[in-house]
Each structure stands twice: as C-alpha cells, then as structure tokens.
Design a protein that fits this description.
By secondary structure, this protein is of the alpha/beta class. It has helices at about 20-35, 50-55, 75-80, 90-105, 195-205, 230-235, 240-245, 275-290, 305-320, 325-330, 350, 400, 415, 450-470, 480-495, 525-535, and strands at about 10-20, 40, 110, 115-120, 125-130, 135-145, 165-170, 185-190, 210-215, 220, 345, 360, 370, 375-380, 380-385, 385-390, 405, 435-440, 475-480, 545. The strands form five sheets. Strands 1, 2, 3, 4, 5, 6, 17 and 18 form an eight-stranded mixed β-sheet that branches. The protein has a five-stranded parallel β-sheet with strand order 7-16-8-9-12, covered by helices on one side. It has a three-stranded antiparallel β-sheet with strand order 13-14-15, with no helix packed on it. Helix 1 (about 20-35) packs parallel to helix 14 and helix 14 (about 450-470) runs parallel beside helix 16 (about 525-535). The two termini are about 45 Å apart. Bound molecules: flavin-adenine dinucleotide (FAD) and NADP nicotinamide-adenine-dinucleotide phosphate. Flavin-adenine dinucleotide binds near residues 23, 24, 42, 150 and 439. Flavin-adenine dinucleotide binds near residues 23, 69, 146, 148 and 150.
Length: about 550
Amino acid sequence: MSAPDRKPEREAFDIIVVGAGFAGLAALRKVRDDLGYSVRLIEAAAGAGGVWYWNRYPGARCDVESLQYSYGFSEALSQEWCWTERYATQPEILSYVNHVVERFDLARDIRFGTRVTSTAFDGTTARWLLETDRGDRYLARHVIMATGPLSTPHIPPFPGQDEFQGETYHTGLWPHHPVAFRGKRVAIIGTGSSGVQVAPIIAEDAAHLYVMQRTAGHSVPAKNRPLRPGEQDAVKARYGELRAAWNSTPGATAWRSLPTDEVVVTGDKSALEVDDEERRETFERAWSYGGYAFHRAFNDLLIREAASQLANEFIREKIASIVKDPVTADLVTPTQYYGTKRVILDSGYYEMFNRPNVTLVDVRSDPIERLTRTGIETRNARYDVDVIVFATGYDAMTGSLTRMDIRGRGGMLLRDVWKKGPVSYLGLMVAGFPNLFIVAGPQSPSVLANVIAANEHQVGWICACVKYLDTRGIETIEATPEAQAAWVQHVNEVAAATIYTKGDSWYVGANIEGKARAFLPYIGFPRYVAKCEDVVGKGYEGFALGPQAARG
Ligand code: FAD
Ligand code: NAP
C-alpha cells in the first residue's frame, strides 16, 4: 500500500509532528484542537497506527491489557470503544487507531507516505526547516518527534542476504497481504516478544519450523481470553479513577486485576523473605492469572539478583513440565536474570516445541554464518528453507532519530551528539536543539510503562510548555548542559540499582552492532511525572528560555 502522489509542499506551521503512532496522533489532536495551533503531521507509512500499522504478523497483539492499552484523553472515546479480548490483536488496535483518526478528523492534517529526511534549526529565525523524501520543505516554530521507540526494524548483517531465493519477512515490516506458510519449510530467527508471538502460529501451518534461538528469554503465559460479559462495563463505570490509579504505578498499568480489583498478588514482599511454600504459591497464582502479574509477584524480582534467580527457578520448573524433550526444555530455559531482557507474554510458545514439525536450533552454540541460495548455514549445519522470518528486533529508542539528519545550533548533528550514548534532559529535549521535543525517546519511561499512558503524559507536558512560552512571548526553550548531565547521571544511577543493566538487550543497545552501550529507558513512571511537574513548578528549571520575541 502506498500513499497517493502529490506535489511537494512549502508551508510554515506553528508545530510539525513527525510520526502517526499513538504519540503523534495524540499530539496532533491536542495541539490543534485544544491549543488552536497550525500543525502538520508527517508519517512515513501509508496509514496511521505506527507499530500497529507495521507489525501485521500473525499473532501480533498487545501485552498490556486492552482496557488499559488505550487513550485516556477522551472519556467519550473510552466509553464508546469496545474491546473484545483481554489482550487486543493488532487488527483490533489498528481499527481503534483508525476510529480515533476519523472521530477527531485527524487525517486532513497528516501527510502519509512521507518520510522526514532532515531537519535543521536556524538560530537567526528560531525556525526548524524540515525536508522530506517527497521534496517538501516545511518551517516550524516547534517540532515534536513522535517517531517511536521501536520503529526502526533491524536485520543483522548476515553475509549472503541477497543470495537467498526464498521469501523473507521482518515482523516489523510485515506485508499487507496474508503470508501463506502451509506446507513450507520456515526458519524464524529471534525469540524475543515478536518471535514468541508469531512462531506458534507459523508452526500450525508450516511443513517444518526451525526456531533459531540465540538467547532464551523469559516468557510467562498471557492467558488471553475473550472479555467476560460485564467486565468491560465495570471498568468503564470508573475509567477515570482507574486510569489515575494505574498511572500511579511504576509501569502505569493495573497493579491489581481487572476489573474487580481482586488481589492476585500483593507484590509487597521480597521473594527472599517468604518461605518456599509461600513463594511457590505466590508464583503459581501469578502464573495462572497470566500476564505481568508475575512481575509483581514480589517487590524485588527486578532489583535483587537472588530474587530474580528464584523467579528463574520457578520458570525452569514450568518449562520442564511443558516441553517434553529434555534437551529442548533445557535450551529454552533462560539463564540470565529474570527481567534483564523484556519479559515476554506468550500463548502456547513452550507447548509448540512438542510438535513434531518444530525444531529448536541453538544458534548460540552453533551461530548463523550466512544465508545461502537455499537457506541458512550455521557453523556446523545447513537448513534448507522456503521462508525466513526475521524476528530480530529494532534499533530501539534512538534508531528512528539517528536515521534523520537532525541539526541543532551550529549545525551539530544529533547522531554525533549521541555517538557515545544518548543524552537528554527528561528524555524530552537535548541541549543545543531548541524547540525540538521528543516523545518516547531515550531516558524517558515509555517502554517500561504502558506506552500510551507515558506518551500522553509527555504530549501533555510539551503542549503546556509551548503554551507557557507563547503566553510570555518566549521564542525558544532548550535544555541546559548542566541539567542534561544531571539527568543522564540520574537515569544511570536508577538503572544501576536494578538488574536491567546486568544483561545484553535492546534496553542497553547491545542488540545493534557498534551501538554504544547505555541504558536507554528511565525506570519509574510516577517518579518521572513528579520530576516533570517539579521542573515546571520551578519555572522550567534546567531549561534556558530564549529571548522574548518582538511580537507582531
Ligand atoms: P510508533 O507507534 O512506533 O510510531 C512512530 C511512527 O513514526 C511510525 O509510524 C513511523 O513510521 C513514523 N516515523 C519514524 N521515523 C519517521 C520519519 N523520519 N518520517 C516520518 N515518519 C517517521 N507497548 C505497550 O505499552 N504495550 C504493548 O502491548 C506493546 N506491544 C508492542 C508490540 C510490538 C510488536 C512492538 C514493536 C511494540 C509494542 N509496544 C507496546 C511498544 C510500542 O512502541 C508502543 O506501545 C506504541 O505503539 C508506540 O507509539 P509511538 O507513537 O510512540 O511510536
Ligand atoms: P527483540 O526482543 O530485540 O528480539 C530479537 C531477537 O532476535 C532476540 O531473540 C535476539 O537474540 C535475536 N537476534 C538478533 N540478532 C541475532 C543474530 N545475529 N543471530 C541470532 N539471533 C539474533 O525484538 P522483538 O522480539 O521484536 O521485540 C522488541 C520489543 O518490542 C519487545 O521487547 C517489546 O517491548 C515489543 N514487543 C511487544 C510485543 C507484545 O507482546 N505486545 C510483541 C512484539 C514486540 P539475542 O536475545 O541473543 O540478542
């Protein structure tokens, strides 16, 4: 699908938003309808939805419960939309997004099928000039980069990529037509959240599926199910109150179960302070309930190495009880600390290995060396296949920003500034890049929270900031280098006190060859919100506010 042809545009706006995922759409609506600014949104895809536009692979669904993974800005919208399952599928989320676009008449201000290639700040006019791959040139007073934390798909540079004669797909660039796996030999590379979601569905059709695993992740059952009668109404009856309660938790999600507030796990004890029986019983309850209740079974699974290992032991036993072949069971059992990689929710992933048409290939001990005309060659074996599915992840959090030429004061490139790892103030702005705001960027909580809630918070902060500047006739806002350095240090200190930094994952940039190792997200949504409010309360502390414009 491609966007219709159009002539290049030359226009000026108060605000340009880049990206039509949940963040960009929320920004467009708020900036235009609540604040009354002129705005244009530019989106590379032919439609809205961001992640949910691109990730059309079978089995794609959210891992935050559908009643929570939705916008909170409009009570009417919250009331009228009906979800059907505990975790919404990609098509349902995309329908929701398209409903939002239509309901709030957003499409008229979006240019689809248009990629921003560069943007540069002109210090004399205090304007950003944005250029696109369609020859557009836009001027803007402010830019909101809503380009997504997981929006730049990554395929490792295996030699021989061009030689393979079969079909290849990346989960994050899935075609719009159905992909037929029936009777085909398929290899899937990668066993993160995407691989674990898609593999069991491919296995149902494929003649044979080779699951190429380098590192076994931690996966807990999602326990997806249709929403029960009355369940949705019970949430809708107190949506505002519930969303506020969810937003007061570290992950901006329900601490207790939906919708009854039944306590699945209290999460107020250390895994180390209870006896074996209580620990097992608590883990068991969380496992049976499904989803991220397991995360919250104890309050230190993501903090103390010994606690994290206890979660590992429980999961190892579960895997051993599901996967019949002991060698495979052993291989799919994670060895790194629970939570160092993003914990996965699955539907029948471990059960899939009991199928006769599925083989686990351990590409840690026998690494992939190259693709060939007919398949994949590892150091010691050859796998002839018809289809290769890359579930190999993303250049997370920085990738979409560093792929553009973003030039701030004196022509400095954001890509260069971030060479040794990203720097920012509150994850929202970078020193030397005035009036350029980032949503879901590095050093913000986004990916460690319900991302829609985190996005909405940042969009709200940015809009209030622009309004503040305009009512005072202030032309520019910019992070000070001192405040930025202090924020980077704080982000790292918070992370160092957890187990997040103790493994290799996209959280630390380890999945991309040559990417600087740096902890990318900020841990703790409510602490972040409080800090953002504090900064505002102190007159945008840590930001340099530019000259008052000569008005008129
Ligand atoms: P995106 O949805 O990534 O949107 C960014 C948009 O910017 C894209 O449409 C992209 O095309 C566009 N863009 C990028 N660069 C340019 C450019 N130069 N020019 C023009 N356009 C550009 N989070 C959760 O909280 N719960 C979940 O269950 C969950 N599931 C996920 C499942 C998958 C498969 C993936 C990949 C991520 C998931 N996430 C989940 C994280 C997800 O990133 C967020 O939930 C959310 O969708 C991000 O919205 P966004 O608007 O910030 O970014
Ligand atoms: P990912 O978590 O980064 O997983 C990538 C996988 O590819 C890993 O198993 C990785 O192995 C493997 N890989 C990478 N390079 C390889 C190589 N050269 N050889 C062999 N294997 C290689 O990516 P993802 O699964 O797309 O998920 C990214 C994030 O998106 C998730 O963490 C989550 O936040 C979000 N997401 C959410 C859902 C959901 O359930 N709602 C679904 C999909 C994605 P190593 O671990 O060894 O590097």
